[in-house]
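This section describes the prediction task in plain terms. A model, or a person checking by hand, is given the sequence of a single protein chain and must write out its three-dimensional structure as a string of tokens. No templates, partner chains or ligands are provided. The sample shown here is typical of the held-out split.
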Amino acid sequence: MKTKILSIVTLLFAALSFYSCSSEKWEPNGGQDNKDKGEISLKSMGVEVSNAEQVISRLAVDLSEYIVTIYNAKNESVGEWKYAQMPEVVPLTVGDYKIVVKSHIVEKAAWEKPYFMGSKTFTIEANKLTEIGVIQCVLSNIKVSIKYDSSITPYLGDDVKVVVVANEQRSLI
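The expected answer:
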């Protein structure tokens, strides 16, 4: 008799467990209170890189080390990843945001290291998945070229030096 009661109780618990698991439905953000949450799809985000003259082929640019940062309306970072390691979907509180994609952390001065940056603003709505589309990253640092008129080149010797002052701390020689 004891075994029958134990078997019935076990079957009852198994049936209740099965019912509770099968009646669950999936909700965004893990079923938490979603009235103030939404999501952004980073998987669908595209990045185009262009210099002053032309769009650079997507195949020619390695985006894996580019830095992707999401800022809230107070300009506080709410997430940052390398492009190759960013998640597919990011849950965010309802509100206005800006996403910034940049090629690297800016240095005070650098030769042969072009800096590309692009951004887009977006709004997160409750229980919705926001898609970003394509972010256009453009050349965003100073490009300096020095050319001498051919009429003065005969007067220039080996001791000619050009100084480009790029900021208050450094100069490019």
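For orientation: DSSP finds one helix and twelve strands in the chain.
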